[in-house]
Amino acid sequence: MILYSFFNSSTSYRVRIALALKGLAHELRTVDIRAGEQYAGPHRTLSPVGGVPVLVTDEGEVITQSLAILDYLDRIAPQVPLYPADPVQRAHVLELALLISCDIHPLNNLRALKYLADPLAVGPEARSAWYAHWIAEGLGAAEVLLQRRGSSTYCFGDSPGAADCCLVPQVANALRMGCDLTPYPRVQQIHATCLSHPAFQAAAPERQPDHRP
């Protein structure tokens, strides 16, 4: 398999965690989204939206959305499950994963922030306020969902899964942007637990070959 990734892309980070959890061998190829390489001809052919991650399977199939990639990985390597078998428990995992992937990330990703800056001419202070607002909205909801589920080691149960793959990169983004996480003790607890896990450590942005300040 080939994974097209960028060290600071939270969606790529999700997939790197899942690959590490499952121990799946893959080739990593860097796409510098800060430099706009995601919009260049060769990569745009792979990703119609112009983004990362992109996974090319051993059979040459191209998958371009992080949660679709996680689902694919779970089907081909079910021995380390990212989703529970129980329908209700699986729905709860997806509930949190989709909250992060659909309600927080799209409003705060690089494309959205660049559009706020140009052409909308929103200044840095207002952009930071925008970012912090959607983090508070989203992580506030995530905290409620996690509190409802009790005090398990990870988001759902005693082993990490798809929800943790999504939560940790989103918290990393929030910390990088200086957001206050004190209102979310459960989120912080799970984040700290995940960071002690070898798979999360291997997938971390600072461990990637293209990492830079």
Automatic annotation (TrEMBL):
Q: Matching CDD domains, A to Z?
A: GST_C_Zeta, GST_N_Zeta
List, alphabetically, the GO terms of the cellular component aspect: cytoplasm
For molecular function, the Gene Ontology terms on record are: glutathione transferase activity; maleylacetoacetate isomerase activity
Q: Which domain of life is it from?
A: Bacteria
Gene Ontology biological process terms, A to Z: glutathione metabolic process; L-phenylalanine catabolic process
Q: Recite the UniProt keywords alphabetically.
A: Isomerase
Q: Which Pfam families match?
A: GST_N_2 (PF13409)
Boundaries of every GST C-terminal domain copy: 86-213
Record PROSITE patterns: GST_CTER, GST_NTER
EC primary class? isomerase
EC numbers on record: 5.2.1.2
Q: Which SUPFAM superfamilies match?
A: GST C-terminal domain-like (SSF47616), Thioredoxin-like (SSF52833)
Q: Which family does it belong to?
A: Belongs to the GST superfamily. Zeta family.
Q: What is this protein called?
A: Maleylacetoacetate isomerase
Give the species.
Stenotrophomonas maltophilia
